[in-house]
Design goal:
It contains twelve helices and 18 strands. It starts with 12 loop residues before the first strand and ends with a helix.
Length: 507
């Protein structure tokens, strides 16, 4: 009889590579054929592919809070840095003697509202010049720019002319820096976590012509690299069919470019013999609408599969490549890293370690996942369905809970600020914490953060097993009552704010 396969081993190290706005349905490993992703597919051939992985808190910084702090963010606040009652995974790993390194070109990590996620890493490297990064104070006039598609001036317009070749773009520089760090540090540390937070293929979908023309070689003039954030763009005349094709092709070009540089990181892992003692996790924060249902960007609509159903692939020493249908979400990445390194986590978290799934010991670790953007629909996802519950009537009451009062800065609107707490604010307690937290109620007529602005299209209920493209909304049928009851129970289980239940009509 053949010898049984050796049991999986516990890795010494971990590498997490987060590619922002990575569309699951466009990767070859998940059946995509539109764009080339040979290196992500190469990685998938040695990894466990999660088929039912979902975003939790959206968008960018809330998703990173899920991964780095391990607790859902979107039910309590719209966007912010690490709160004083919680700690990042890197803080716990520092206590455990694990070396941690951040390499990133993600601008939101280094601005108000995201500024202290990096501070507990042993070291960090910021590759400058992506999207809203205020890197240069004047443009290089040799670059003529690109059509704005309704957007205002961005810091990228000043930075772009300084990228002379492919290797100068922030994404390639980030991947090259990650490869160098691995070459320089392989075998030196007893245990390490390398976290690569790569902003590509997020907009601007700007690449050298080799990639910009790869999927649309008949386009004339400056490439369209800034997608509008709108639902019904073609129907409303915001985009023509030809412009829509160009935008999607430019996303594909950027996806293929960052895939090529990701391949260099894989080569470095191979060259240094790291596969035998290192877990490698490839993930994302969310997807990106590129015309699916005529939606573009990340506008105020329910979280359809394009945006919320995301890739997760894990290479683990001793684990055979394959696929799992275990339901998972981004807070589970924190829990998995804590489990891997034996971290003693003391604050309230919402994740489940995926190591038992990875090792084949169990088939699942959760039966549902919660997902959403603060002030918008709350989504309950299970093995076969998705329920998006919208506010009843006015989008109120709702509150923000935070001791770090901030939201996402918008470069074109420097005077836009989150309204400060007023005399309605009071001190409350976060679940699992005795630290007082400012709780600011909002009611109809208050100036809410832009995330919570309408319109809303009512409740949505989809049978993902029989209707994966979410064409038939089953809300209003008898089955919705069961979904509503399960959502209410899930919110109560994590001690979600009571006003969330009230605004959703789930009291």
């Amino acid at each position: 009889m053949p010898e049984p396969a050796p049991p999986p081993t516990q890795p010494k190290n971990a590498i997490v590579i987060l590619l922002d706005s990575l569309n699951r349905h466009m990767l070859g490993a998940y059946g995509g054929t539109e764009f080339l992703t040979p290196n992500l597919d190469r990685f998938a051939n040695r990894a466990l592919r999660f088929e039912k992985h979902y975003s939790g808190s959206l968008p960018c910084m809330p998703a990173r809070h899920d991964m780095l702090c391990g607790s859902l963010d979107f039910l309590w606040r719209p966007w912010g840095s690490v709160e004083i009652w919680e700690r990042t995974i890197t803080s716990y790993l520092r206590e455990a003697g694990v070396t941690t390194m951040l390499i990133s070109d993600h601008p939101h990590l280094f601005e108000t509202g995201g500024e202290n996620y990096h501070t507990e890493f042993t070291a960090w490297d910021y590759e400058r010049g992506h999207e809203g990064d205020p890197w240069k104070t004047r443009p290089d006039t040799s670059w003529l720019g690109a059509p704005p598609m309704g957007r205002a001036q961005m810091p990228y317009d000043n930075s772009r002319g300084y990228f002379r070749g492919e290797a100068d773009f922030p994404g390639p520089r980030t991947m090259a820096a990650a490869a160098r760090w691995l070459d320089d540090n392989a075998g030196y540390h007893d245990r390490f976590l390398l976290f690569v937070d790569e902003f590509d293929p997020h907009e601007p979908f700007d690449t050298p012509d080799e990639y910009a023309l790869m999927y649309d070689d008949s386009w004339q003039g400056p490439h369209l690299i800034w997608p509008p954030y709108v639902s019904g763009a073609i129907a409303a005349g915001v985009l023509t069919e030809r412009q829509a094709h160009q935008l999607r092709a430019c996303y594909g070009g950027k996806l293929t470019m960052i895939d090529a540089w990701f391949g260099r990181v894989l080569d470095t892992i191979e060259r240094n013999g790291m596969w035998d003692d290192t877990a490698v996790i490839v993930c994302t924060d969310h997807g990106h609408y590129l015309g699916e249902k005529d939606i573009w960007g990340k506008p105020n609509v329910p979280i359809y599969e394009t945006l919320g159903h995301i890739p997760l692939m894990v290479s683990w020493p001793g684990v055979e490549p394959g696929a799992t249908t275990a339901l998972s979400t981004n807070v589970d990445i924190f829990a998995t890293l804590a489990d891997l390194f034996g971290a003693d986590v003391k604050h309230r978290t919402h994740g489940k370690s995926l190591i038992p799934v990875i090792r084949g010991e169990v088939s699942s670790v959760r039966d549902h996942a919660l997902s959403g953007v603060w002030g918008r629909e709350v989504h309950l996802i299970d093995e076969t369905s998705k329920y998006a519950r919208a506010p009843i009537g006015d989008n109120a009451p709702i509150s923000m809970w935070s001791n770090r009062w901030s939201t996402m800065p918008i470069t074109s609107r420097p005077k836009l600020r989150l309204p400060l707490p007023d005399d309605r604010a009071f001190l409350d307690r976060m679940p699992g914490s005795k630290v007082p937290v400012i709780r600011q109620p909002f009611v109809q007529g208050d100036r809410l953060p832009f995330w919570a602005l309408g319109p809303f299209s009512g409740n949505h209920l989809y049978d993902l097993y029989n209707d994966p493209s979410e064409d038939e909304n089953r809300a209003g049928e008898h089955r919705e009552r069961e979904s509503a009851d399960r959502l209410r129970a899930a919110l109560i289980e994590i001690e979600a704010p009571d006003d969330q239940l009230a605004r959703l009509g789930l009291q």
